[in-house]
Amino acid sequence: xxxxxxxxxxxxxxxxxxxxxxxxxxxxxxxxxxxxxxxxxxxxxxxxxxxxxxxxxxxxxxxxxxxxxxxxxxxxxxxxxxxxxxxxxxxxxxxxxxxxxxxxxxxxxxxxxxxxxxxxxxxxxxxxxxxxxxx
Length: 135
What we know:
The chain is of the alpha+beta class and 135 residues long. The protein is 19% helix and 39% strand. Strands 1, 2, 3, 4, 5, 6 and 7 form a 7-stranded mixed beta sheet that branches.
């Protein structure tokens, strides 16, 4: 499944981002990342193994420019909120994105930089292997 890569590609198409969004948590070398969160849920599943799932993600931006941090995540939030299709690798179908809550600042770290977060869920449909049903 290439969902994380497709989301990062879509966001990186925005103009005037402070840097390229990379896949991964914040680190000494990275101030702008997207990563999956724990807590994916199966919304529904039918007898043929078709599942609707919600997958939680987070985007984090660390910056000492609080206006830039806030504006950047609001711009990403609007982009994702208006996303109604996403190219996939065929292992799943994109359904929708739910953003809740809206972007927010969480803390100021020891380097006097703020960390801004945007949490959202992506709903997908995928076929899962139910295993040998004759067993």
